[in-house]
Design goal:
The protein has 497 residues and is mainly α. The protein has two domains: 379 residues, MFS general substrate transporter like domains (Growth Hormone, Chain: A, Up-down Bundle), CATH 1.20.1250.20; 52 residues. Helix 18 packs antiparallel against helix 19. The longest helix has 33 residues. The relative contact order is 0.13.
Length: 497
């Protein structure tokens, strides 16, 4: 039998599988860095993409997760998640070559629609693969290691992502300077390299052992309804669905905003992205430890408000044009986004694994992805439409002072175009935090203030490690000295790192 499953895996087989999963994670990161995010947006803009088209491209990967329903049927029928994941991944990665050929086979207008169709087919096949992969990993990885293992996987993948983003950013700037009229071909090479990285990843995936699934005795319809009869898991689905809608309303347009509104060059955009990735890399191990020691809900309760605050700050990078605080604000935004997204990405993956029953996780994780697909897919499309509508509107708040011989004014607030749905995304994110309070997870700390305080001390230690500059150290000493006094006043035990 191709890719046989085993009733019981030995500790050696589990460790061999975990090593293969780490290597596959590196290749998956390479594919994602080269073909998604800011480089995909930049390629689409080269083809003449509008705001709506950028929103559509951002919506395709999450909307493709609607195929989770037939994917569950496939997995339940064949009872072999590795087979489904390997074959689907192979089909998915083949469409990267189609995208690479766009500058050769079609003019920009037609090429843009080829990009949409190829990305759609790529995402559908990848979604089917991920359905099997997530359920497979739920049974392969020991539950007590989930947080730290995925933190490690994301850490080494993020490290590779930082290096690749830096190299690709310089490569694109060099190509543009050398061959300014043939910029699109530089992106073709990225997709070819990504294809070969994907093939290597599929090899590592194929060598990962799979524990046997628990066959379901229910009909397919009843299997898919199981997660929604579990009230706690249903609360998780609602929270992650509303959260994904809020952040995907704004996040896909950050790169467009920097390139078009702020008029930054691609090198500067890549530099900001690397800044965010470095912070993400630095804090992954912290959030991994806390998700295992306390729980993922505690990590969410710290990281989610920070990420929402960083979204709101985008609206203040222009007043109404760029000004002396634009670059400092962008630096702060990307630092906060990197720090908080590390915890949110890790926690959103782990909490689904943790609340899904072992041996029968496929329908639970599929339903989670299904709802996330709808919300995260609809949001950027609405964002693209909103960007077009709000281009005609402006909200301004100016303070003026007029006296004999004196007249001055200060622009306090100026919202236009993309700024409006940055604010809307922030407000909708606040609602999703309310839904988080309804989720119960084993391991919730009884003293939330103590959890928050310990996390803040970890952040303080990380800042110490990241910089030896006395000025930065003094900036963080003030708030932490207040926390120290508060902790002593409340008789909390303290271990100052």
């Amino acid at each position: 039998m191709l890719f046989p499953v085993k009733t019981n895996l030995t500790p050696q087989e589990i460790q061999q599988g975990l090593r293969a999963v780490l290597k596959d994670g590196l290749m998956a990161q390479a594919v994602d860095t080269l073909t998604a995010g800011m480089f995909l947006v930049a390629f689409a803009l080269q083809l003449g993409a509008s705001n709506f088209m950028i929103g559509l491209l951002a919506a395709i990967p999450p909307l493709a997760h609607l195929t989770q329903i037939p994917a569950v049927l496939l997995i339940e029928k064949f009872q072999n998640r590795r087979l489904v994941a390997v074959l689907s991944s192979s089909i998915s990665r083949s469409f990267l070559l189609v995208i690479a050929l766009i500058p050769v086979i079609a003019p920009p207008t037609e090429g843009l629609w080829i990009l949409v169709m190829a990305l759609l087919l790529n995402s559908i096949a990848a979604s089917i693969a991920s359905c099997g992969w997530h359920s497979w990993m739920r049974d392969l990885i020991p539950e007590k290691q989930l947080g730290q293992f995925f933190a490690k996987r994301k850490f080494i993948a993020a490290a590779l992502g930082v290096v690749l983003a830096f190299l690709v950013g310089n490569y694109l700037d060099y190509w543009k300077a050398k061959w300014p009229n043939e910029v699109m071909y530089s992106y073709s090479i990225l997709f070819v390299v990504a294809f070969f990285a994907g093939v290597i990843g599929i090899y590592f995936l194929s060598t990962t052992p799979e524990p046997q699934m628990i066959p379901s005795r229910h009909s397919f319809f009843k299997i898919m309804l199981q997660p929604f009869k579990d009230q706690n898991f249903k609360n998780l689905v609602i929270f992650l669905g509303s959260w994904n809608f809020a952040i995907n309303l704004a996040a896909p347009f950050f790169t467009v905003y920097m390139l078009k509104r702020l008029q930054l060059d691609m090198g500067m955009v890549v530099l900001f992205s690397i800044t965010s990735q470095i912070m993400n890399l630095s804090f992954l191990r912290i959030w991994g430890r806390f998700s295992d020691r306390y729980n993922n809900k505690s990590v969410f309760s710290i990281c989610s408000p920070l990420f929402l605050f960083s979204i709101l700050m985008w609206a203040f990078t222009t007043l109404p044009d760029t000004y002396f605080l634009t670059i400092p604000l962008l630096i702060v935004i990307h630092l906060i986004m990197g720090l908080s997204s590390a915890g949110m990405t890790l926690a959103s993956l782990n909490i689904g694994f943790k609340l899904a029953p072992k041996g029968n996780a496929t329908p639970y994780l599929a339903s989670l992805k299904l709802v996330n697909a709808l919300t995260a897919g609809i949001a950027p499309i609405l964002g693209g439409i909103a960007a077009h509508i709000f281009a005609k509107y402006e909200l301004s708040w100016t303070l003026k002072w007029i006296s004999p011989g004196t007249k001055w004014s200060i622009e306090m607030l100026n919202l236009q175009h993309w700024d409006f749905f940055f604010v809307i995304a922030f407000i909708m994110g606040l609602y999703s935090l309310h839904r988080l309070s309804l989720v119960n997870e084993v391991g919730t700390a009884t003293a939330e203030d103590e959890v928050l305080l310990e996390m803040l001390y970890e952040v303080r230690r990380e800042v110490r490690d990241l910089s030896s500059a006395a000025g930065i150290r003094q900036m963080v000493e003030f708030p932490f000295s207040i926390l120290k006094q508060w902790k002593q006043k409340n008789n909390l035990s303290e271990t100052d790192p």
